[in-house]
Amino acid sequence: MELYPEFYNDVFGPVMQPGSSSHTAGPCRLGYLAGGLLGEEPHKIHILLDQHSSFAGTFGLMAEDNAMLAGALGMLPNDSHLFQARNIVHNAGTEALFEFGEMHESRHPNAIKFMLTCVSGKTASLVGDSTGGGMVETHVINGFPLRFKGDSFLCLLFDPDGNLHEAAFEQYAASQPGLIETGSAPFA
Q1: 75 within a domain of the structure (yes/no)
Q2: What element of type H or E holds 65?
Q3: Which pLDDT value is given to residue 1?
Q4: Contact of 9 with 135, CB cutoff 8 Å
C-alpha cells in the first residue's frame, strides 16, 4: 500500500528550515541517507548534479548546497545548523566538491549523486531524486540498483568476500513473513 503522498506533507509541506521542499528538504534527506551509508564523518563530499537539471538554474539560491552538505554531515531538514553547513565543512577541513555534468543513473530533474569518503578511505555512494514535498527516492546505492523511497528502515549488507551465507538470511527472513525481503547481487 502506498503510504504517501499524504495530506499533511502535500498540503502543509515537510517540517524543515526555510527554502524549497524539493531543493532544500529533499536534497538534505538524500545527503542524510548517503551519510548513513558511510557510518562516520565524511572527509570528502563529492556531489554530482546533472548539467540540465533544475539545480543548474537555481544552485545556491534555495540553499541546495548547504542542504546537501548538511545531510551528508548527519543533519535533517529541520536542523537549525543547516544554513551553516558550508562553514562547518570548511572549518572541519572536509573537502566539498559540487560538479555539474552528465547524470546517467537518473533522468529526474532533481537527481543527485553523492560520493563520500572518510579519513580511513571507506567510501559510500548514493544516487537519488528529490521527488517533491521533501520526499526522496533512491536509484543506486554503493553501485547496486535499489529503488527505495527513504520512508522506512532498510538494512543493507555488503559481503565482498563471500563470508556470509545467503541461506541463513533466507531462513531468518522466512521466519519474519512480510517484514524482511532478501536478495543478493554480485559485488561491483
Answers
A1: yes
A2: helix 64-72
A3: 42
A4: yes
